[in-house]
Amino acid sequence: MTDFLEVDGLGDRLGPVVAATRSIREDPSIGAGHLAGKQIGLYFALPSLRTRVSTEVAVRRLGGDPVVLAADGVGLGERESVGDVARVLSRMLDAIALRVTMHKRLTELARYSDIPVVNLLSDVAHPCQALADLATIADHRPIEESTVTYIGDPNNVARSLASGVTALGGTMRVGSPARLEADPASFAAGTEFHDDPDEAIADADVVYTDAWVSMASEDGGRRKALDGWGIDITRFGRAADDAIFLHCLPAHRGEEVASEVMEHPRSRVFDQAEYRLHSFQALLLELL
Q1: CATH number at residue 144
Q2: What does the pLDDT look like over 161-180, one tens digit per residue?
Q3: Looking at the 3D structure of the chain, how many domains does it have?
Q4: pTM listed for this prediction
Q5: How far apart are CA 24 and CA 212, in angstroms?
Q6: Annotated catalytic, 272?
Q7: Residues 19 and 153 reside in one and the same domain
């Protein structure tokens, strides 16, 4: 049994899972019937569009049954202890994927669980998003030959992206204001840090940003610190001539990104969103 709580959980299987993700986009029938007779729990403690739809559809494509669990019904760690919930679900499900506010809930659940536990999002990491990101980048150019720049709050999305890019041999840059200085210890070794957005973006092959304030996070002065850091056409133009733009969505046009960049011919935002489906399908095939 293997859990997927952070990108490095796949080890040397990360590259093959990214490759499988791209293959599934070309042929969504790959793995059809693989989960026949299996029940996959999907738990959401936060609002969800891409994660909710992609996970349910992926489970059904593989022949399994998605069992959606509402946070207020389960009361994970509140109405019932995490350990007790884990042991109950282990006897009824074949895997459980969760979107939570606290990563420690995932690690505790995994400790008591006899089935694979998948992180759909936590305050520490967003590894399923990273799988979709890596597949999108690989469509553009080999990851090992790519420089990927993330601009904004050095959050869970940035950490997971950095883990994936560096693990596959790419160069990862994180640009954020000194006031929001990233903790290098929480990022993959080899990640570069910049406190000037134009310097971070210069000649990059991929430009990536996220909402200035993520769900379930307090502003904490982030918007003020990031004022002037948004990706507009001029700033995007500092990247490589064929650079692509990525955003994990939802986007706040006019804040972290200009609408002109979202709609740019080299924006791959909606390919990236689509890959959330194919990557979860590939991940389930790997884990189960």
Answers
A1: 3.40.50.1370
A2: 999 999 999 999 999 998 88
A3: 2
A4: 0.97
A5: 32
A6: no
A7: no
